[in-house]
Amino acid sequence: FNLNHMNKAQLIGNLTKDVELRNTPGGKIVGSATLATNKVVTDQAGNKNKYTTFHNLVIWGKAAEIIAQYAHKGSKLYIEGEIENRSYDGKDGVKRYVTEIIVREFEFLDSRQSDSPAAAPKKPQETEQGEEEEIRVENIPF
Length: 142
What we know:
Elements: E1 9-15, E2 20-23, E3 29-42, E4 48-60, H1 61-70, E5 76-89, E6 95-108, E7 125-126
Parallel strand pairs: 4-6
Antiparallel strand pairs: 1-3, 1-5, 2-3, 3-4, 5-6, 6-7
């Protein structure tokens, strides 16, 4: 653990759609999803304004399978991971920039998950380290 450098994001929010699972050309499983987080800001007039931020998630391996199985659109999740910026050339030739959260740990926060006998674990789950593989442009979901 290096205190001189840290790249860590902690989010609590809701999935905007079900996790999309794919296999990389190397045969590894990767999931993508979007997590929405909300904040309410009171302006000078006392009006409350709600703002939503959308976070692109990349989930590798078994963690992707577990989240895809137990979480669905609207599910509340705790996500912990690293912020990663990357760029790619779109089909129109324009360079695009993307910020993603590479999920390292997660926890289901909906009570619905605890209703199932095969419920997902209560404590945060760590994803397998070293599974990352380059995502090719043709595999980008957006």
